[in-house]
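Many introductory courses stop at the sequence. We go one step further.
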Amino acid sequence: TGSIDSSIRCWDCRSRKPEPVQTLDEARDGISSVKVSDHEILAGSVDGRVRRYDLRMGQVFSDYVGSPITCTCFSQDGQCTLVSSLDSTLRLLDKDTGELLGEYVGHKNQKYKLDCCLSERDTHVVSCSEDGQVLFWDLVEVSLPLPLLARASAMFYLSHSQV
């Protein structure tokens, strides 16, 4: 779990104990996004940093994006992370080096925590927008997004499925 108190707490639900088994407290501001893979925790914070905790190696890696983070996710191939922030920019980062691989703009994200994700084959970046749109960008071309008007007010949550 991620909290406004700047901590991430790891729980063992099988033990039925009310205490976390581990607390990660490197963030300097509230945690706004937490994603978990088989051996990693990816966390975004209002302090503008995305942190990746490698549980196997006991290491933390941090990348600064400069604006409060609203959403983070792993790519399907596990090589990249997608980060959304309150400057209306999505950033695709190399998971290991932190190198900026792509920036995606065209949506509005200045006030709210909005979801973003990558498609199942890592071919498209998908994001909600405060103006009621859901936008799709080609991952490689970084071309202008394809907007879908879903409603007249902010879209907060999304999930993508190949149909």
